Amino acid sequence: MATHHANAVLPDEPEKATLEGKNKILGFWLFLGGETVLFGSLFATFIALRDQVNGGPTSQQLFDMPLVAAATLILLTSSMTSVMATLALHKKNLKMIQVWLTITVLLGIGFLALEIYEFVHYVHEGHKISTSAFGSAFYTLVGFHGGHVAFGILWIILLQLSAVKKGLTVVTAPKFYLASLYWHFIDVVWVFIFTVVYLMGMIGGKVG
Amino acid sequence: MGAHAHNEEVRKPKVKHDSPKRHVVAFIGSLVLTALAFIAVAYEVIPAGFTVPFIVILAFVQAFFQLFVWMHMDQKGHEYARISIFAGLFFILAAIIVFIFWVWV
Question: How many contacts, defined by CB atoms under 8 Å, are there between A and B?
Answer without folding.
Answer: 153
